[in-house]
Amino acid sequence: MGQRVRPTRVEDAYARLKDEIRTNRLPPGFQATEPEIAIRLGMSRTPVREALIRLEAEGLVELAPRRGVRVLPVQADDMREIYEILTALEPDAAASLAARNLSQEDLAPLEMATSAMEYALANGNLDEWVEADDRFHRALLELQGNRRLQNVVTALYDQAHRARIVTMRLRETPQKSTEEHRAILHNLQLGNAEETRRVFRQHRERAAKELLGILDKYKFGQL
Amino acid sequence: MGQRVRPTRVEDAYARLKDEIRTNRLPPGFQATEPEIAIRLGMSRTPVREALIRLEAEGLVELAPRRGVRVLPVQADDMREIYEILTALEPDAAASLAARNLSQEDLAPLEMATSAMEYALANGNLDEWVEADDRFHRALLELQGNRRLQNVVTALYDQAHRARIVTMRLRETPQKSTEEHRAILHNLQLGNAEETRRVFRQHRERAAKELLGILDKYKFGQL
DNA sequence: ATCGAAATTTATGTATGCATTAAAAAATGC
DNA sequence: GCATTTTTTAATGCATACATAAATTTCGAT
Question: What is the phi/psi pair of residue A72, to 5°?
Answer without folding.
Answer: -70, 140
